[in-house]
Amino acid sequence: AQSVAQPEDQVNVAEGNPLTVKCTYSVSGNPYLFWYVQYPNRGLQFLLKYITGDNLVKGSYGFEAEFNKSQTSFHLKKPSALVSDSALYFCAVGSVEEYGGSQGNLIFGKGTKLSVKP
Amino acid sequence: KAGVTQTPRYLIKTRGQQVTLSCSPISGHRSVSWYQQTPGQGLQFLFEYFSETQRNKGNFPGRFSGRQFSNSRSEMNVSTLELGDSALYLCASSLGGGQFLPGANVLTFGAGSRLTVL
Fold this sequence. Notes:
The structure holds 2 protein chains of 2 kinds. Chain A contains 1 helix and 12 strands. In chain A, the strands form 3 sheets. In chain A, strands 2, 5, 6, 10, 11 and 12 form a 6-stranded mixed β-sheet that branches. In chain A, strands 3-9-8-7 form a 4-stranded antiparallel β-sheet, with no helix packed on it. A two-stranded antiparallel sheet of chain A has the order 1-4. By secondary structure, chain A is mainly beta. The termini of chain B are far apart. Chain B is mainly beta. In chain B, the strands form 2 sheets. In chain B, strands 2, 4, 5, 6, 9, 10 and 11 form a 7-stranded mixed β-sheet that branches. In chain B, strands 1-3-8-7 form a 4-stranded antiparallel β-sheet, with no helix packed on it. The interface between A and B is medium-sized, with 31 and 32 residues.
């Protein structure tokens, strides 16, 4: 069965330090992967996506993620964290083979709360 | 351009009642998806509509239903409400399209409708 795992419920980072939010996935076929961020009382905002091509994907607000097919991972990274990055981060995966023509059916991880302290 | 608009933002119902939530997608977007977000289960896919047709459905009971109108606006309905239906209901729109482009169409989420069932 398809699934997404975000092994850490919370990640604590000091401002200015690099941050990593982990994500591993399991789908049959070729995956396409997303990271979204959610601020309190708001919907999810798109950060970046991987479909095909370069394994290193750059997204909004200085975030990037690396697709690793052998480890089935798609970790989110940022070289220097800001206090304003504190939010809930979701990894999501879809697969053409599993979901056919449905583009709106994504499997989301449980989310990782990122806390950046000054 | 205007984002995805969900109404109402907050509502309180009692067990056994029914509720209808509305979603207006971004202009030009033809696909609308609905998700339920709870602290315990995270985000779970409810259904997706494209051109007034349900394209995919998640694993929810028949009490959960939806529809899409010719202007792409969508509604979802939950009948015979249960305490466990308390959640944030998120709507997301995307361009959609007759030809599936894997992951190409990013989901844009609304702020959600927070339902409390007493």
